[in-house]
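Readers of this paper often ask what the protein records in our data store actually look like. An entry from our holdings is shown next, in its original layout:
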Amino acid sequence: MNQETEGVRINKYLSEIGHCSRRAADKLIEENRIKVNGQTVIMGQKVTAQDRIEVDDILVEDLLERKIYIAFNKPVGIVCTTDTRVEKDNIIDYINYPSRIFPIGRLDKPSEGLILLTNDGDIVNKILRARNNHEKEYLVTVNRPVTEEFINEMANGIPILDTITRKCLVEQIHKKEFRITLTQGLNRQIRRMCEYLDYRVVKLRRVRIMNIKLDVGVGKYRDVTKKEFDELQNLIAESDKHID
């Protein structure tokens, strides 16, 4: 009997068609989120290409074709990696999305807040190249009172990582808290800037990426709206015109 008529295990099948990893498929099976021909599957069940396979009541074929864009409020302690073998507390396992997605950029493990995830490689490249309009806004709490001198120095450039940070918008919003909007993404940039001025970051939360704002609870996610996506495309298009 050939493989086509005999079938393959559901987790292997979903991995081979590019839907998700075997490990992720096993989690979906455990959570009773996969149906074959209308019936909830069991671990190790075999399927063929002729079977009707649904994840969260959506046909696998439709999920593979659909472009996914979600806004996620990352908790502290979650790592922005797609390598689920390396890091236990990784973003992919945490979200447990029913199909393969990956984060656009990074957010440090000790930081929380907005990160976008997608299955659209083209938009990832465009956003990461978008030098001019790629604003990222953060709310930052530090270990001692913020001064006017601190705000001015942060806004006008700090020497870190063999460069001077780009001028940025910084605004005090509480005794030990400030808002900062960056247009560059150096490694641990805000933490390093604060350390240079003898401040220590106590809490760092990203609340906006370009036109998309954080509006879901910690650990929650939502779809990017059509209006947000259209505006994002416009911002990326403007940025592309200025690439060297």
Q: What stands out?
A: The longest helix spans residues 226-240.
